Amino acid sequence: MRRGALGIPALLLVAVFLLYPLALLVELGFHAKTGEWSLAQYERIATTPIYLLVLWKTAWVAGLVTCIDLLIGYPFAVALSRARGWWRLFLLAAVLMPFWTNLLVRTYGWIVVLHPNGLLNSILLGLGVVSEPIELVQNTIGVLIGMTQIMLPFMVLPIAAQIERMDRRLLQAARSLGASPRRTFLHVYLPLTLPGVFAGALVTLVLSFGFFVIPALLGGRRDVLIAQLIDFNLTKVLNWEFAAALGTILLAVTMGIFLAAQRWLGLNSLWTEAR
Amino acid sequence: MRLSRGEAALAGFAGLVSLFLVLPSLIVVPMSFNADNLLRFPPHGFSLGWYEAYFGRDDWRLATWNSVTIALAVTVLATTMGTSAALALVRGRIPLRNLYIFLMLTPMIAPPIVSAVSMYGVFARLGLVGTYPGMVLAHTVLALPFVLVNVVAVLQRMDWRLEQAARSLGASAARAFFEVTLPMIRPGLVVAAIFAFITSFDEVVVALYISGSSAITLPVQMWSGLRFEINPVVAAVSTLLLGLSVLALLAIGFLRRAGAGSTV
Amino acid sequence: MSKAKSHPSTRRTVLKGAAATLILAPMPLRRAFAAEGEVVYATWGGSWAEAMRKAWFGPFTEKTGIKVRTIDGPDYGKIRAMVKANNTEWDIVEVNPDFQWIGPRENLVEKLDFTVIPTDQLVKGENLLTDYSLPEAFWSRVMAYNTKKFSKENHPRDFVEFWDTKRFPGKRVMYSKANGGVLEAALLADGVTVDKLYPLDIDRALKKLDKIKDDVLWYETNAQAVQFMQDERGVLGLVADGRVKFIKDKGAPVEIEYAQSQLTWTSYMVVKGAPNRANAMKLLAFMTSVDGQKAIGMEYTYGLVAPKAYDLLPPGRAEMLSNGPQQQGKTVLMNEKWWGENLEKTQEKLDAWRLS
Questions:
Q1: What is the CATH number of the domain that holds B79?
Q2: Cβ contacts (< 8 Å) between C78 and chain B: which residues?
Q3: In this complex, do A95 and B138 lie within 8 Å of one another by their Cβ atoms?
């Protein structure tokens, strides 16, 4: 089919305005600071434990954020798709709300809510749930809370869209054939929403790899993520060669995760031709 | 309508998650009425000074206008191009499709600062830095993967026999697409368009590089307001945006009355 | 999406529009901006930019007819990007002193024209003046303490005491970047004398940091440091003096101890290929003159780079500035040359320590 040609304009745009510039940067990563071809940057990454450690930590945080978002986001999307009238609008407003507030200001909002004498701790102390303030920011918990909130809409909306356009007659059919609600959910409802889940999870995971502001402002001593190191090399010490190598590895890792998800999670069908 | 126990639990859960989503944004609202120039909570005194500062300054108004118009252009461009790419992926034959998918997702994967510094060189050579088309192109590139992922997801589960039926009844390919396929994938398209708009409207890192001094967007202006010290005008702007979005949703609500049709 | 139905060619129209945009993209129209009477100044922005407008830019334009256009955010990455793309948009940048060495090494800056810029009036000191840079202003990181927890009589007076978590319990607010003074503080706390500070013994400093690692709140931006002190989450801090003075004036319970305050500065540099190079030199001369320094001393609390200007200030004003009389003999000058050469390696070690 010549429908394949429909994919050309988008690819062309991305190729000219991002892939080509990125390729120039990636190439830079294969040079020594002095200019000649060299694998020095990659040697440095491989022989300095901290870079692999940070990469691992980044993957761990991104994966965790994706899982939490899936666990909260799925039921929320179900609720959203069932809601009607003003309740629906309220839920929708809640999903879109984070986007209207500047990231830095929103992060500041989190600090106000979470810090030891902040809103949440005051409430918990007042209710007697805890006897001492709990440390919720300037540590990994803070990073997870902040990232989970920011990424949640990216999980919820695709799933909700998928539920929205689901053929409800299939559910009725399953029920009328005597399937229990649980069976109906597991064997009919869930599979029908999987493309939305995959879309949401993919976006959440991939975006979480590049986080910079949140770990910097809500994190603590141990919260160094890869984007912070790349930013430092690009904008503070101007070692673009090294930043390029770090960036290339980040791209390679995300691609690896993407391919692995396709192969092992049986999600292959999602990106291949629909029959 | 009577709610079953399960439904009530689900609604309760959704309410809690909503709180989680809105709380850090809402907390900014009282801070925008702070009388002194520190962003602090609880606020000290009451003042509309930060709103005056916002409305009184040309640079803030211009940045707002730039942001809205750029984001709208990006929404149209990215949704159209992304949807056709999604159609190509799901319905067409693309050589090296895994590579194609990966390349199309790159704008989402590359950390913003990496994209920003590498894009700058090419944009500068084309004379696009600091121009309106430059900003639209840069943000369209960033928004494309979101459109692609969302539209592919809805196209996957689409019943193509309907389109085939339309074709066999004599509809042209275009007509079958616009009258049969499009209405069916509408929820996904709306989400894609929302993401495209937001990607542009909320984006700061690439904009810092590409917007130069003559196509400054609201996030860039806000970034400037937070760089040296925290300027509470930013809280006022955030509050205004929140208010506007709530108004927009209320308007939709009144237009649709109780819940007919879908909004997502 | 219903509009598309009534107008099936929408998609194509948009694509055409995009193509047209590409083709008709204004080629170096930008050059037209590089008008005769202008100089572009990249600044940290905020209230500092306001002060500069009042003290420097307004009077300069009045005197010479040259307009000063400010742009926020003199980011090193952007300087490199614009120079490598042959698209220099800025003339003067205000930068941290490490750029005095990073800039020339990467070939991103112009030599200054000292036939236009007099330097006799400037403060003397190692590394303050290079072929490529002029000192802009002094500032320092000072020990700040919470006045509810500690008093004028009983608070840390040097870094040995700053490290004493038994006598002075509570969180310490410190900068997470290696060149943010934390390593110097650790070495001073470990008994290293000021004259033996550089080259820094990083391993020794990190070992000393281990002792208080659970008592530190790390900040990434100055605004965050202020927030920690203001929320009283941090009871001690190593924080930029201007920021502490600012919140103190707003009623926050903080006080400054100047002992062992870490003195550093910001620099002026001119970007390679600056569109208004000659005007930039004139503005630099204007700002670093004794009169220019006096004017900024009235508007802002940064330390002046022309010592004579202090004498022209009204009584009491000098004490409010960084590196003013109140601070004399109590400062430790940062060796920014060492940092310009060693920041990368040192940050790597500090990050490794953070993760350990």
A1: 1.10.3720.10
A2: 120, 208-209
A3: no
d(CA A147, CA A62): 9
- State the residue range of the domain holding B256: 64-262
Chain C residues near residue B182 by CB distance under 8 angstroms? 1, 4-5
Q: Does B159 touch chain C (CB under 8 A)?
A: no
Please identify among residues 23-42 of chain B the ones whose CB lies closer than 8 Å to any CB of chain A.
Answer: 23-28, 31, 39, 41
Decide if B19 is inside a domain: no
Are B144 and A13 within 8 A, CB to CB?
yes
For chain C, give me the number of helices (H) and strands (E)?
A: 15, 10
pLDDT tens digits, one per residue of B133-192: 999 999 999 999 999 988 988 887 777 888 888 888 888 888 888 888 888 888 888 889
Residues of B in contact with C248 (CB under 8 A): none
Neighbours of A51 (CB within 10 A): 22
Residues 6+ apart with CB under 8 A from C274: C40, C88, C90, C91, C92, C110, C280
Q: How far apart are CA A182 and CA B236, in angstroms?
A: 48
C355–A54 CB contact, under 8 Å: yes
Does any domain span residue B26? no
Of C149, C139, C152, nearest in space to C256 by CA = C152
Q: Are C290 and C312 in contact (CB under 8 A)?
A: yes
Please check whether residue B162 lies inside any domain of the structure. Answer: yes
State how far the Cα of C209 lies from the Cα of C167, in Å rounded to an integer.
Answer: 17
Task: Find all residues with CB under 8 Å of C267, minimum gap 6, and list them.
Answer: C94, C95, C96, C97, C99, C100, C133, C134, C135, C136
Chain A CB contacts of B114 below 8 Å: 22, 25, 230, 234, 243, 247
Check CB contact under 8 Å for B94 and A7.
yes
- Return d(Cα B164, Cα B151) in angstroms, integer: 19
**Would you give the DSSP letter of residue B262?**
-
In contact, C219 and C225? CB cutoff 8 Å: yes
**pLDDT tens by residue, C53-71:** 999 999 999 999 999 999 9
Residue B14 lies in a domain: no
Which residue matches tokens 């999903």? A95
Handedness of CA A170, A173, A175, A177 (dihedral sign): negative
What is the count of structural domains for chain B?
A: 1
